[in-house]
Amino acid sequence: MTENRESVSSCIDDICQLGCDGVRSTISAIESGEKPELVSSLNSDDRASVLVELKEIMAVYDAESEQK
Q1: Which residues are CB-contacts of 8 (< 8 A; sequence separation ≥ 6)?
Q2: Using one digit for the tens of pLDDT, what is the confidence trace for 30-60?
Q3: I want to staple 34 with a disulfide (CB 3.0 to 4.6 A). Which of 18, 23, 29, 42 is the partner?
Q4: CB atoms within 10 A of CB 38
């Protein structure tokens, strides 16, 4: 695993610890061009990777919520 990949994974783990609302807030902020504290040290490519992965994670939670 590359150093950048480790940073991205660690960042995603930290954001997920914020819960669903925190993840959604972070997604919105990144999409708006903001740099939330947890992603501020990442370059733009890594922030884009974090955004994609967070959206994929939330898609799973949203799908599970709809089934209940």
Answers
A1: 42, 46, 49, 50, 53
A2: 999 999 999 999 999 999 999 999 999 999 8
A3: 29
A4: 19
Return the number of other C-beta atoms located less than 10 Å from residue 48's C-beta. 13
Name all contacts of 46-55 with Cβ < 8 Å and 24+ positions apart: 46/4, 46/7, 46/8, 46/11, 49/8, 50/8, 50/11, 50/12, 50/15, 51/27, 53/8, 53/12, 54/12, 54/15, 54/16, 54/23, 54/26, 54/27, 55/27
Q: Where would I find the H helices in the chain?
A: 3-16, 19-31, 44-67
